[in-house]
Amino acid sequence: MYFLLSQLSIMDLLYSSTIVPKAATDFLSGKNTISFVNCGIQLFLFMTLVAAECLLLAVMAYDRYVAICHPLRYSVLMRPTVCAFMVAGSWLGALLNALVHVIYTLHLPYCASREIHHFFCEIPALLKLVCADTSLYANGLYFSGIIFLLTPIAAIMASYGQIISTVLKLGSDLGMRKAVATCSSHMIVVSLFYGTAIIMYIVPEAYHTALQDEVIAVIYTIVTPTLNPLIYSLRNKDVAAALRRVLRR
């Protein structure tokens, strides 16, 4: 669990770092510009890290499923080599997905305005500047969203469905409370992250405006990564006790 949490923290830190420093610099200096190369780099890093986090959250749900439903086999099913393999698979799948999308996006003809109505380089905002038919690529982006958003969500729901079924069969209020305590932090993070990402990449563009896209992007690029450490840390009794000792001083 802590190994997977460390990977989540690294992903949150890295993908916030690809956006927040540049956005803060532009806000303070008033020079809201970015080169074509830097835009491509920012887009590649962002897509890699967000897709990797989508897959990692599904792995974390599986980890909780094994811990609650198969506790005696946990040390075998989630041994270090298996965890490392699943995390490496998350990174590799996200890397390949980002590479394909970024290469294709950067080779599109940008002969219209070069003004991006967004605070960082993101594919939906860039497609609005293309002076060619992008409907086919938009379908490909939608299909990619299904793979990296809806498929992990289905896996997460299946994991928690099995957890609820197992706990209910025990008929123990204490068991239910422990299961809720174990899974609540993860479910809060999943709701914040996937909810906003689905609106951006799955919901048709006609149902949200450019301003709404910016607000939604702030949630999953800044708010959620900032809240993740607090959500997970304060659910840990040892961390909460340490925080209370510090505040008393």
If you had to describe this structure to a student in words, what would you say it looks like?
- The protein has 249 residues and is an all-alpha fold.
- It has one domain: Up-down Bundle (Rhopdopsin 7-helix transmembrane proteins), CATH 1.20.1070.10.
- Helices cover 80% and strands 0% of the residues.
- It is built from ten helices and no strands.
- The chain has helices at residues 2-17, 20-29, 36-69, 74-77, 80-106, 123-127, 135-170, 173-201, 210-234, 237-248.
- Helix 3 packs antiparallel against helix 5 and helix 3 (36-69) runs parallel beside helix 7 (135-170).
- The longest helix is centred in the middle third of the chain and has 36 residues, at 135-170.
- It starts with a helix and ends with a helix.
What does the secondary structure layout of this molecule look like, with pairings?
Layout: H1 2-17, H2 20-29, H3 36-69, H4 74-77, H5 80-106, H6 123-127, H7 135-170, H8 173-201, H9 210-234, H10 237-248
Helix pairs in contact: 1-3, 1-9, 3-5, 3-7, 3-8, 7-8, 8-9
Keywords:
249 residues, Rhopdopsin 7-helix transmembrane proteins, single chain, 10 helices, globular, mainly alpha
